[in-house]
Specification:
Layout: H1 2-20, H2 37-42, H3 54-60, E1 72-90, E2 104-109, E3 115-124, E4 131-147, E5 170-186, E6 191-207, E7 228-240, E8 245-252, E9 256-257, E10 260-265, E11 271-276, E12 283-290, E13 296-305, E14 333-343, E15 348-357, E16 378-387, E17 392-408, E18 411-412, E19 416-417, E20 421-439
Antiparallel strand pairs: 1-2, 1-3, 1-20, 3-4, 4-5, 5-6, 6-7, 7-8, 7-9, 8-12, 10-11, 12-13, 13-14, 14-15, 15-16, 16-17, 17-20, 18-19
């Protein structure tokens, strides 16, 4: 009874830590996904010190793959469905005498559609060996926005050179996939170290292509893209401590990407190539897990994202001398994730999780982030795994990102924020994650 009381106290303290340290947050930890696959997502992404499945262990801490009970292979698919709305208003004469002649305002819903995110992970634990090997292949980051042109919503009216006040039809899409070979070594019964070289491929499309100089006063299309390649490395420590506490630490280097290339128009019937320098940020994760409650695992992760020093994301938001957008102006942020797993029976595992994170986008930069409005503050997840056979499991998880809105002013090249104007992004999201695991 005393041990149970101590376990409940420690577990409650861990969850209280998650709640008290929860700052404002955004969807998917900026552009980065907060979890991989149904098991890791159901724990709110908390796995730096809680290796429950192969995908989550490889993604957040390569050293922790040695903490898995058995070798396993996992196949999964996430379906992300964002719900987006953009509204704006412009006071009469905000852009000069008689422009616009009367106040103008409107609101438009987007149609981003469902985004599939594949997940494959494998971990092999040789018998009587200190080494553990793994391989992960999955989506790690992305966004999508898709808005029709409008005659009443200022931000979606035609571009100024075409007689409007906005961008016209607005489309954006980004996806980053990663291949992660992983190896871990048990230095002792309590301590493991691990390393993962990361091979990353990414694709970005913008229409209109505001990150490139306009031609004849108009931004051209940026749909003509290909996958760009990059890479980095991840290293971690995993420690099995006393009194049912485990600890983990990992560092993901930046994902150094080659320049993203866009084949776009030159205004004279020909084409030109525009380039955009963008890297994914360095991420530092520290986690704790408590296993002192019978059939229960509690986990908490704290993460730091170095967006400010990542080209593209951290570059100051504004216009250069040609009218091209120079960057997104994101700040460095912290996030906190917490999760709980409970074994309800020999065949059924239940989980729940919660994620909080600081917002990398300052409100004054809302205008420059209309194509990537990653501003959801709170995410809650519930999931379960059911044993189909002695070695196979079926897992399912649902994640909801609660609606959030952010407002900032219009910006104009050479002027800055425009008085009597506003742009508001409103976003929510839902994720359904399915996976099949075989242990051997």
């Amino acid at each position: 009874m005393k041990r149970l009381q101590e376990g409940l106290f420690s577990g409650g303290a861990l969850l209280l830590c998650v709640i008290l340290m929860s700052p404002e947050a955004v969807w998917a930890q900026g552009i980065m996904l907060n979890g991989i696959g149904p098991v890791n997502r159901s724990m709110g992404g908390a796995s730096t010190a809680a290796p429950i499945d192969a995908a989550g262990a490889i993604y957040w801490n390569p050293a922790s793959i040695g903490g898995l009970a058995k070798s396993e292979v996992m196949f999964g698919m996430d379906l992300l469905l964002p719900t987006e709305n953009i509204s704006s208003q412009v006071g009469a004469g905000a852009f000069g005498p008689g422009v616009p002649p009367v106040p103008l305002s409107g609101s438009t819903g987007g149609e981003p559609g469902a985004c599939p995110i594949p997940v494959v992970a494998w971990v092999h634990k040789p018998v009587c060996s200190r080494w553990t090997y793994g391989l992960g292949m999955y989506g790690i980051a992305g966004f999508r926005a898709n808005y029709p042109a409008s005659t009443t919503n200022p931000i979606l009216t035609p571009q100024p050179a075409a007689g409007g006040l906005g961008f016209g039809q607005l489309f954006s899409e980004a996806e980053f996939l990663q291949i992660v070979p992983t190896v871990a070594y048990a230095v002792s019964e309590n301590l493991s170290i691990g390393v993962s070289p990361t091979i990353t491929m990414g694709r970005i499309a913008f229409d209109p292509l505001a990150i490139a100089s306009p031609v004849g006063g108009l931004y051209t299309s940026g749909r003509g893209t290909r996958y760009s390649w990059g890479g980095g490395v991840q290293a971690g420590l995993y420690y099995i401590g006393r009194n049912s506490w485990n600890w983990g630490l990992s560092i993901k280097s930046p994902q150094w990407m080659e320049d993203f290339r866009f084949i776009t128009g030159d205004g004279a019937g020909g084409s030109r190539v525009a380039k955009f320098d963008l890297d994914l940020p360095m991420i530092i994760s520290f986690g704790g897990a408590y296993t002192g409650i019978q059939k229960c695992i509690l986990a908490c992760d704290i993460r730091y994202f170095d967006y400010k020093n990542a080209p593209g994301f951290g570059d100051p938001a504004g216009f250069d001398g040609t009218g091209a957008v120079t960057g997104l102006g994101w700040d460095n942020i912290f996030s906190v994730s917490g999760g709980m797993q409970y074994q309800a029976s020999d065949n059924l595992y239940l989980r729940m999780g919660y994620t909080f994170q600081q917002d990398p986008i300052d409100g004054t930069n809302t205008f420059f982030n209309v194509a990537c409005p990653l501003i959801i503050e709170h995410l809650v997840s519930v999931g379960a795994s059911y044993r189909l056979t002695a070695r196979s499991f079926l897992s399912v998880t649902y994640v909801h990102g609660f609606e959030n809105a952010q407002t900032g002013p219009y910006h104009a090249a050479g002027v800055g924020p425009v008085p009597s104007t506003s742009v508001t992004n409103t976003v929510s999201a839902d994720v359904l994650s399915l996976g099949f695991t075989v242990r051997y």
